[in-house]
Every structure is written in C-alpha cells, then in structure tokens.
Write a structure and sequence with these properties.
The complex is a heterodimer. Chain A is mainly alpha-helical. Helices cover about 65% and strands about 5% of the residues of chain A. Chain A has one domain (about 15-40, about 50-220): Fumarate Reductase Cytochrome B subunit, CATH 1.20.950.20. In chain A, strands 1-2 form a two-stranded antiparallel sheet. The N and C termini of chain A lie far apart (about 50 Å). Chain B folds into two domains: about 10-230, 3-Layer(aba) Sandwich (Rossmann fold), CATH 3.40.50.700; about 330-370. Chain B has helices at about 10-15, 20-35, 45-50, 70-75, 80-90, 100-115, 145-155, 160-165, 200-215, 230, 240-245, 255-260, 280, 330-355, 355-370, and strands at about 60, 90-95, 120-125, 130, 140, 140-145, 155-160, 180, 190-195. The chains are: A mainly alpha, B alpha/beta.
C-alpha cells in the first residue's frame, strides 16, 4: 500500500529569477520576430516618401533595444547566481559532481526515455532544475554569449557607445560580416528549438508530477513532498510562532 | 620606367616637368588630401611632402589577376594620379604599362631592387598560386611564388592591390584548383597593406600611395590590414538609398516600380550591409556613380570569400560549416517541424507509459474534490 504523501509549499524561484525569466522571454520573443523581419523584410506597399516613413528603422530599433534588455538581464542573472538561493546559485549548475550525474541518468531514464520505476520515488524528483535542464541552460548561456558577441559585433560599427564597440574585433576574426551574420542567424534557430522543448517539458512535468511546475515561474513556489524537509512542521505553527515573535518584540 | 634616366627628382619637380602648373599641383594636393580623409589644415603638409620627397621607387608585380586594379588606377579621377604617380614617374616595373620588355625589363627591375633595397614599395596585383609548385602562373619562366619572394625581400612595404592579392578573389573560390593564395599568407615579415575590391577604387589606391609618400609610413590600418580611411564603413552605412531601407521600402524585383523609384536593393541580395568599402562616398569613374546608384546591388567584392558567400541576388544566411546550400532557414524550419513531431510523440508516449501513475493521481484528485467540506 502506498503511503499518504503530504506536499509543502517551497519557495524555489526568487523574484530576480522570475524577473530574469520573463524579461528574457520578452526579449527573445521580440528578438526572434524582429530578427526574422530584418533577415527577410516583408513587402510593404506605400506611396509615402521615405522621409515620412521609418518602419524598418523601428523594427531595427526594437531589435537593438531588446538586445540590450537581453544582455542586461543576463548580467542580472549572473549576479544572482552568486547572491540567490540554492536553486539560483551557480552551484546548482555545476555539472561535475557525482550527484549531478546520478540525477542526469535518472532524468534520462524516467523523463526522456519514459521508463517507469518499480515504485515511484517522489524524493528523486528535483526541486529546482534537474541535471538535464541545468546542462541545457549552460548550453543556452554559451549560445547567448555567441548571440551577444556576434550581435554587438554587427551593430558595433554603427554605434557610438563603447559597449557595442568592445565587440568590433569579432568581424575581422571571422574575416567579415558574412560569416558573423550567418552564425547570428543560425544560432537564433537554436533558441527557437530550445524554447519549444523547454515549454513542452514544463507542461510535461506539471501534468505528470502535479507540483506546480508551470505556476512556479509566476509565484515562485513549488510543492515538495514533506519527506524531503528536515522536519515537516506545520505551516500554522510557523504562523503562530511568527505572531508570537511579533508580539514579543513589541 | 625601365628606359628612363635615373635622375632623382621630387614629385613636385616631376609634376611641373609634365607641364602642370603650380595651381594644378595645389589642386591635386587638396583633392588627394580630402580623399585620404585628412583635415583641411594638412593640405600644406601634403604639398610640402610632394615638393621635398624624392620619388619612391615602386615595383608593381602582376600575378593571377585580370588587371582590373591597374585599369581602375589609371582611371583615377585626377590626371596627375595617372601621369605622375603611376605612368611616367614612379613605376620602375609593371608588366602591363611599361615600354620595356623582355630581358631589358627584368634587368631594370633587378637594378631597382638592388639600388633601392629596403626603400622601394612593392605593389602586388593578383594572387599567387601555390598549388603544383607554383606552376599555374609563370612569368619569364619563373613561378609567381619565386618572383614574389624575391621582390618582397628588399621591399619597404607591400601593397596588396585588389581582392586577388588581399583575399584570393575568384580564383580562390571553392574548390580553388590552383590553391590561389593572398599575399599576407605568404609574406609574413613585411608590413602589408591590403586594399581589397574587385577592383579597388582608383582614388583609394592613389590615396594609399600618397599617404605613404607624404608621411613616410603606412596609413592607419584596421585589424584586417586595410586602410581605415577607406574601409572603416559599410557601403550600406554610407549608401544614398539608406533612407529607403530605414523606411522599409524595398525593390522586390529588378523591373518593378520600386526599383525604378530607387528603393533599397536589400531584398535583391545587395551585399552593402556586409561590405566594408567607400563606394558610397568616393564612388567610381570620377564620382559619377557606383553599383547601387546604377540600380544593381553590391556584390561585396571587397569582402573575403565574396564569391562563395551565397548568391548575388538573394539574401540568405548560410549555416556556418556546411559547404553546400545549407540555408539556416530551411534547416531551421525542417528542424522545428521534426522537433514538434518528436514532442507530440513524446507527449503521447508519456501518457501511455505513465498511465497508472496518472490515473491514480486523477482518482485521488477526484476523491479529494468530493471530500471538500463546504
């Protein structure tokens, strides 16, 4: 007979992580759409003079603005890897531990190959990112660097600010704009692939595990089986203690 | 030239001797200073240098090339460029334009190389075929590689004229049967100025030489060894059709109304956005026009591998690393489709494989729902 499981609400994704996530979504969404438009602009019929139109300039402006947003939220996230909780920490992403690889094979078996354990063990489910996810985020981080470097390199020659100008060495490295542009374009597709798999797996986990995977990126909470907590205290007890504490300080 | 008497005279003396007036000379100094991107106040310095500097001996080698660089140079806007810098005064050796021929010409070249060792400027037009021991390009019974190594030995600096000498150009396009090689990959111990373009603009070529004469050193170069004054900007960023680009007004075909109205040629494969050159500002044929102004997109002739960088009349992003027509968008669309299919299969598989677990959870949920105390 299965034992009865109680789930506790655990604060997993702190506010900076959630802000990073959603600003990243926004930036990537704008970047991909405007990126496609820049690569292959639609034919617009207009009798207006070029002087009175700036439509493509606006598309490019949005692309560059979103690029800056993408860049700065990434810096925020890197900072938070040192300041945040254990799920946001760089340690959670560090791949070279035995525990990590055990978890990696577990996720590969259960979630990717869809095998079943003899008896479902809820305690093996990752609370924050699982190891396959962290690997994919490390890859995405590298890819984001590629996009930032190639993007600012293409932009740098028009810019007057030192930040994009820092990347002008990239163009000569690849011999010219052609290859840099191609890399920038091809890498974008990898972001699209990532987003598809990412969204699917979030739905998958929410549907099969029912621990609030989807809503966790809004509220920050996930539901964790109380066996995994050091001592499964009653939430009401904490509230009572807090109230007492407040009373005591007064 | 090979036959002329070896009298050292300054550029100014040569120019006056050619029948130009002092006024013509000053006009020339002003004009070339402007092209070199110098301030107005430096015209005097240019004029003074041309007055006081003895002509710099120039050896101009021709290898695997079509002579379009020389053609471009002699069509440079100002007659003094052709008359003085190129034609009668400076060049000690150039296959195409010199009067001497045969052993006489070769002897004159040798004499210059010995007499002005470490002083002369070596101009190279064309790439050097390194395949088959250099046999694909032989002049006077010697391979281009031999000739280049010999004349580079005593050169003060080397100017790689055009895309052939700078990048390899068309003959280096895949599969590059002769192993055509640009100069900077062969000569490593000399300062090399790369002046790419097929051909480079005549004024740019004159500007580079005058800069070296005037200041006695190389012009400021970018990381690819190109003079910054002429190759710092993309054609696109100085294009007079740029407002149409920013407005989103594009020619869709070469014969539509948009093309007639002079709209941007971006969608017709114009490579201006990727090409660093000064066509948009200096233009060609005495500033008359340049490809885009004449209604044809830029083909990016001054960029490395321009011949292999996709079709001239389409705007495509190739997948780096794939040789054939690996286009990012085609592969991306197929990849996204396959991936979406895979995810659907995985989703179905998950629901089948984990059905027990799911069913039990659903049942528990339903029973809890019935159990709500309202």
């Amino acid at each position: 007979m299965k034992k009865i499981r109680n789930f506790k609400r655990v604060y997993v994704w702190e506010l900076p992580v959630r802000i990073f996530h959603w600003l990243n979504v926004l930036a990537l969404f704008v970047l991909v759409i405007t990126g496609f438009l820049i690569a292959n602009p639609p034919a617009i019929l207009s009798s207006a003079e070029a002087t009175n139109l700036h439509s493509f300039g606006i598309v490019r402006f949005l692309h560059f603005t979103a690029a800056y947003l993408f860049f700065f939220v990434m810096i925020l996230r890197v900072y938070w890897a040192f300041a945040g909780n254990r799920f946001a920490s760089w340690k959670a992403f560090w791949p070279f531990t035995k525990k990590n690889w055990n978890n990696f094979w577990h996720v590969m078996k259960i979630d990717i190959m869809l095998m079943n354990e003899k008896e479902e063990d809820v305690t093996k489910i990752s609370i924050g990112h699982n190891s396959v996810a962290t690997l994919s985020y490390i890859f995405m981080f590298v890819l984001a660097l590629v996009q930032i470097i190639t993007g600012f390199a293409l932009y740098g020659d028009m810019a007057s600010w030192w930040l994009p100008k820092m990347f002008t060495w990239v163009i000569p490295l690849f011999g010219g704009d052609f290859l840099v542009r191609s890399i920038h374009h091809a890498a974008m597709w990898l972001f699209i692939f990532f987003a598809m798999v990412h969204v699917y797996l979030v739905f998958y986990h929410d549907w099969l595990e029912g621990r609030g995977e989807v809503s966790s990126m809004f509220g920050g909470y996930k539901f964790v089986c109380d066996e995994r907590l050091k001592h499964a205290h009653n939430e009401e007890e904490i509230e009572i203690k807090e109230e007492k504490g407040i009373v005591a300080t007064k | 030239m090979a036959t002329k008497k070896e009298v050292r005279e300054t550029y100014y003396e040569s120019i006056i001797k050619q029948g130009y007036s002092r006024r013509d000379f000053m006009k020339f100094a002003t004009y070339i200073a402007a092209y070199m991107g110098l301030e107005n106040s430096m015209v005097g310095q240019v004029a003074k240098s041309l007055e006081t500097t003895y002509r710099v001996p120039v050896i101009w080698e021709h290898f695997q090339e079509c002579t379009c660089c020389s053609e471009s140079f002699i069509r440079s806007d100002h007659p003094i460029v052709a008359d003085i810098i190129l034609d009668k005064i400076s060049l000690d050796y150039t296959l195409t334009l010199m009067a001497a021929s045969g052993h006489q010409a070769e002897a004159a070249k040798k004499a210059t190389m010995e007499k002005y060792k470490g002083e002369y400027i070596l101009c190279v037009e064309g790439s050097v075929p390194m395949g088959d021991d250099g046999n694909y390009c032989c002049i006077g019974g010697r391979s281009a590689k031999d000739i280049l190594l010999e004349s580079a030995e005593g050169a003060k600096a080397i100017i790689a004229w055009g895309s052939c000498a700078s990048n390899g150009c068309v003959q280096a396009a895949k599969p590059n049967p002769t192993n055509a090689t640009p100069i900077h990959k062969i000569i490593k111990n000399k300062p090399i100025i790369r002046v790419p373009g097929c051909p480079p603009i005549g004024e740019v070529m004159a500007g580079v030489i005058i800069h070296m004469v005037t200041f006695g050193r190389l012009p400021e170069l970018d990381r690819l060894g190109r003079p910054k004054a002429f190759y710092a900007k993309r054609v696109h960023d100085s294009c007079y059709r740029r407002p149409y680009y920013d407005a989103g007004l594009f020619a869709e075909t070469f014969d539509d109304k948009n093309a007639k109205d002079g709209y941007c040629l971006y969608k017709l494969g114009c490579k201006g956005p990727m090409t660093y050159n000064s066509c948009g500002t200096i233009k060609w044929n005495n500033g008359v026009s340049y490809p885009i102004q004449s209604g044809h997109g830029c083909i990016g002739c001054s960029e490395e591998n321009f011949w292999d960088n996709g079709p001239f009349y389409e705007r495509l992003a190739k997948v780096p690393g794939l040789h054939a027509e690996g286009l990012a968008d085609d592969i991306g669309k197929i990849g996204a489709g396959v991936l979406a299919g895979g995810l659907v299969v995985h989703a179905i598989g998950a629901n089948i494989s984990k059905r027990k677990e799911l069913k039990s959870r659903i049942n528990r949920g339903k029973s809890n729902e019935k159990n709500i105390a309202s």
